[in-house]
Amino acid sequence: MDQRDADALLEEIEALGSKLGDARSAIATRIIGQDRVVELALAAMLSGGHALLMGLPGLGKTLLVETLSSVMGLTGNRIQFTPDLMPSDILGSEVLETAADGGRAFRYIEGPIFSQLLMADEINRASPRTQSALLQAMQEREVTIAGQTRPLPRPFHVLATQNPIEQEGTYPLPEAQLDRFLVKIDVEYPDRETERGIILATTGTAQEEVRQVFDAEALIAAQDVVRRMPVGDGVVDAILDLVRACRPSGEDAPEAVRKHVAWGPGPRAAQALMLLARAQALLEGRLAPDLDDVARLAEPVLSHRMALSFAARAEGVVLSDIIAEVASRVTHTARAA
């Protein structure tokens, strides 16, 4: 990259950082607290990916998705996943119509997946057959119906929600689908002051209106900027070392991973870390990601791409502790190099 291109990219990053600040302020008028959750959701959208929101009912997951749709200026649809939901309820279907002259022809009716921001509410309540309807859409941004491939609108993002404790009548997401989520976002209980602000803001007669900051074209342009952000060799090596060290069969895996992890992350995890580290830096007004970004994003990116062995679960081993230990070791080694 020559100096002129570097200067142009610098101007784009600075302008986009200011606009993202406006977007976060707009989101904050509706979403009180949950700064890290909002940050990760925005980072996933800036990276062009999908996010899985894990949290108990009533913590604002649905409201967050609706607010993001308004602030980012995207057309949004919501699907409430239930055991009787069929793939055609998501993708759409062909219907046989009779014209006025008596002729018959099939007409395709688009399903709710043809939107720019799809909220898949309680995604694990649908059957595996219905869940699989999202696989092609999430990876290739297109769907194949009746032998014809139909592109989805751009940009296309899936924000799915899942209740982590109520498992009766649910179907665990297969590993292939989990891997298509760029990041898993844990939505925790708010602290006391945040919860106080929530009840005061939501039990009155007026509700804050959110303003649109982005539109589809602006978001696509922002995603292009993220992909053009420079990344230092040290950060790239740290990402590779971290992902490879979390594979129990890998030669770089520490003892804790070899002993307790059943399977580890694939190449998509490294891709996700690279994109999200750039987006994280952009959200914080920095021009390039650093090792701290890699360490902070390790758990959201890796936790749904790994699994503990049965023995480790029986012993009470916590996966997030293993990821934190590996991330700390990798970033410490990278700084010392």
Tally of domains? 2
Rounded mean pLDDT score: 88
Q: Strand order of the main beta sheet, please?
A: 2-5-8-1-9
Number of helices: 15
Query: What fold name goes in the CATH topology slot of the largest domain?
Result: Rossmann fold
Spatial shape: globular
For the record, what is the CATH homologous superfamily label of the largest domain?
A: P-loop containing nucleotide triphosphate hydrolases
CATH architecture of the largest domain: 3-Layer(aba) Sandwich
Q: Count of DSSP E strands?
A: 11
Largest sheet: 5 strands, parallel
N-to-C span = 26 Å
- Strand proportion, as a percent range, falls in 15-25%
Overall CATH class of the largest domain: Alpha Beta
CA-atom Rg in angstroms: 21 Å
Instruction: Please identify the structural class as seen in this structure.
Output: alpha/beta
Secondary-structure element order, as H and E?
Answer: HHEHEHEEEHHEEEHEHHHHEHHEHH
Task: Give the low-pLDDT segments.
Answer: none
Helix content: 40-55%
